[in-house]
């Protein structure tokens, strides 16, 4: 739960040398603030206050800001316009995208006589038939509504039709309030059912009755280990603390520990933790340290097989060489006659040789009949 603290205001008051009592402008948007408090006591000189995009459900504790001119409460959970009568200098009010269904609550702004601009677009009441005419007729000091200037003729017509429009708005308000009450009841029931289903998970030492389900996945594709811890969807993230170590991970949920030994060594510095936007679960991604080593082992197995096969092939060759050794009992010299006879039976390619004529014979040549002719 985000709260308005003195330290938070000082951090956002650097333009004023961190002095808060004399602040004239303060921006506290996107701080997950759930309640509007303390500002009217600590910063009474404020003229501009930005509180958009928080979780504020009610307008309160601003009545002492007499000099406030611009208040931005867009993108919050406000259902009703109230407690602004004391802001005497208010000229601009932005309530865009809230849950305001009681359009008649704008009557409280009649006391803010300097109010010139009002933004209500994005609220359920802005969809009512006769919405703009009702606002224009009710707040006659307004000059602009939802960014559009109010013409004099438009106000005259709105005042003429006001009794009928007021009745229509009342009927639509009541119908909306009934739907809203049913929606809230259903949401609470779903929340209780969800918490009951989550309570059926596993229990672990140290949680003292707490039951949190989890899943541990080894993502081989990204070489990381993923822990999905089913913390409650609406639990504030500030109540969760994560500590990743090389061999285990520890999660503190509201001061109670959840600890798990990891199946492989991980890199704490490269790990990340985030909340799921849909389920609220805590997802911790932890890259493994042995990524390279594991890959080397996988590639080394074929290498070992190749080495073994190489050794086996060498042994086979050595065995073959032993079989080719000459038998000492046989002749050490080959039989030339047999070799020649074998060659006769082998097909060979005869190359044509140039015929030597008598004129080309050597004059010193002597034909010996005892010498057999050359083959």
Order of helices and strands: HEHEEEEHEEHHEEEEEEEHH
What shape does the CA trace take? elongated
Strand content: 15-25%
Alpha-carbon distance between the termini? 113 Å
Strand order of the largest sheet: 1-2-3-4-5-6-7
Structural class: alpha/beta
Largest sheet: 7 strands, mixed
The number of helical runs is: 7
| Low-confidence blocks of residues | 201-209, 291-310, 317-326, 340-345
Helix content: 25-40%
| Count of individual beta strands | 14
Q: Could you report the average pLDDT, rounded to the nearest whole number?
A: 79
Q: What Rg is obtained from the alpha carbons, in whole angstroms?
A: 47 Å
What does this structure look like?
The chain is an alpha/beta fold and 375 residues long. 29% of the residues lie in helices and 15% in strands. The protein has a seven-stranded mixed beta sheet with strand order 1-2-3-4-5-6-7, covered by helices on one side. The protein has a four-stranded antiparallel beta sheet with strand order 8-9-14-13, with no helix packed on it. A three-stranded antiparallel beta sheet has the order 10-11-12, with no helix packed on it. α3 packs across α5. The longest helix has 37 residues, at 162-198. The radius of gyration is 47 Å and the shape is elongated.
What is shown here, in short?
The protein is of the alpha/beta class and 375 residues long. It is built from 7 helices and 14 strands.
What order do the helices and strands come in, and which of them pair?
Elements: H1 6-11, E1 25-27, H2 39-42, E2 48-50, E3 70-72, E4 92-94, E5 117-119, H3 131-138, E6 144-145, E7 148-149, H4 152-160, H5 162-198, E8 214-219, E9 224-229, E10 240-244, E11 248-253, E12 256-261, E13 272-275, E14 282-287, H6 291-323, H7 336-345
Parallel strand pairs: 1-2, 2-3, 3-4, 4-5, 5-6
Antiparallel strand pairs: 6-7, 8-9, 9-14, 10-11, 11-12, 13-14
């Amino acid at each position: 739960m985000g709260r308005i603290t003195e330290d938070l205001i000082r951090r956002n008051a650097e333009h004023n040398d961190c002095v808060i009592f004399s602040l004239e402008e303060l921006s506290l948007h996107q701080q997950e603030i759930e309640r509007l408090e303390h500002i009217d006591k600590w910063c009474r000189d404020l003229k501009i206050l930005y509180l958009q995009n928080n979780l504020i459900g009610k307008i309160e504790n601003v009545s002492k800001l007499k000099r406030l001119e611009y208040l931005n409460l867009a993108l919050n959970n406000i259902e009703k316009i109230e407690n602004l009568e004391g802001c005497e200098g208010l000229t601009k009010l932005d309530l865009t995208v809230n849950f305001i269904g009681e359009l008649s609550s704008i009557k409280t702004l009649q006391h803010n006589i300097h109010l010139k601009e009002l933004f209500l677009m994005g609220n359920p009441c802005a969809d009512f038939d006769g919405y703009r005419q009702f606002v224009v007729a009710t707040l006659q000091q307004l000059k602009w509504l939802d960014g559009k200037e109010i013409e004099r003729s438009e106000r005259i017509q709105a005042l003429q039709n006001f009794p009928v429009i007021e009745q229509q708005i009342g009927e639509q308000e009541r119908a909306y309030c009934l739907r809203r009450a049913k929606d809230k009841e259903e949401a609470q029931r779903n929340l209780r059912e969800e918490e009951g289903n989550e309570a059926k998970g596993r229990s672990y030492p140290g949680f003292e009755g707490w039951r949190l389900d989890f899943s541990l996945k080894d993502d081989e594709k990204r070489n990381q280990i993923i822990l999905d811890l089913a913390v409650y969807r609406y639990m504030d993230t500030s109540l969760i603390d994560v500590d990743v170590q090389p061999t285990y991970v520890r999660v503190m949920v509201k001061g109670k520990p959840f600890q798990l030994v990891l199946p492989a060594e991980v890199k704490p510095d490269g790990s990340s933790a985030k909340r799921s936007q849909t389920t609220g679960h805590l997802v911790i991604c932890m890259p493994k340290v042995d990524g390279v080593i594991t890959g080397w082992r996988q590639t080394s197995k074929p290498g070992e097989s190749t080495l073994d096969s190489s050794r086996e092939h060498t042994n086979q060759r050595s065995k073959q060489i032993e079989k080719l050794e000459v038998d000492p009992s046989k002749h050490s010299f080959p039989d030339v006659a047999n070799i020649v006879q074998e060659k006769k039976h082998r097909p060979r390619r005869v190359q044509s040789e140039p015929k030597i004529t008598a004129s080309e014979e050597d004059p010193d040549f002597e034909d010996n009949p005892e010498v057999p002719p050359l083959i």
